[in-house]
């Protein structure tokens, strides 16, 4: 029973981190109509940069301030050089972002090497929770992910730029006619998507392996969360990510991780048979 509780809690923590990453994927798809195959690699870049900052300065907390800013800047450059020329070409975006994924992976491998690394958690204490000695860092990671997701929704609904993003998302022609700089909104949206994925990488660094292929496992999970939550439904993406990770975590306590992942895929298929547009598709805003 203790194993089920531990893996279930780990699933919730991991689901919140995935939700943070998948939100970036969802806003990029919802606003730019880009199927971003490289999104898992944005997460990978975040973990590697966090490792580099810690290895260079010895201060892991510094990575929380620096890496999302670097991610935003890299995202803006990629949007200008790669995404802008293929905007409104969803099929072409698959090819372009697949190439981008290979470039990011090979660049990281050539710069930092191919040997997987581990990040030591900055908080090593445990606390008693539900009869377990649970890692404080995992609780911190969950709370930070919730705070980051909450800040994103506040930004989206309480700021001028967030209002512009929602306006361009639903009716770009009218938004442009009303003087909203859609071109700038597209760039900022893509950059925010990269920043959110890289922040997820910083948070997950001490939990997962730092590796140039770390994004390969993350990407399918993010797509499952976006699809089950309803394409373009941001709140649905968050809920679906947590539910999927909890389901997979509990399943992993009864079987091996591979079968647990297959179980998640079966769950996604079952959901889509009943709700082809996702669980929360009817509440898209």
Set out the fold topology.
Layout (H helix, E strand, L loop, with lengths): L1 H31 L6 H19 L3 H23 L6 H23 L13 E4 L2 E4 H23 L1 H11 L1 H6 L4 H23 L9 H16 L4 H19 L4 H18 L11
Antiparallel strand pairs: 1-2
Helix pairs in contact: 1-5, 1-8, 1-9, 1-10, 2-3, 2-4, 2-8, 2-9, 3-8, 5-6, 5-8, 6-8, 9-10, 10-11
Coarse morphology: globular
Helical element count?
A: 11
Strand order of the largest sheet: 1-2
Number of strands: 2
Radius of gyration: 19 Å
**Distance N to C terminus:** 40 Å
**Strand share of the residues?**
under 5%
Overall description:
This protein has helices spanning 2-32, 39-57, 61-83, 90-112, 136-158, 160-170, 172-177, 182-204, 214-229, 234-252, 257-274, and strands spanning 126-129, 132-135. The chain has 285 residues and is mainly alpha-helical. Strand 1 and strand 2 (132-135) form a beta hairpin. Helix 2 (39-57) crosses helix 8, helix 5 runs antiparallel to helix 8 and helix 6 packs across helix 8.
Q: What is the compact description of this entry?
A:
This protein is mainly alpha-helical and 285 residues long.
Keywords:
2 strands, 285 residues, 11 helices, two-stranded antiparallel sheet, single chain, mainly alpha
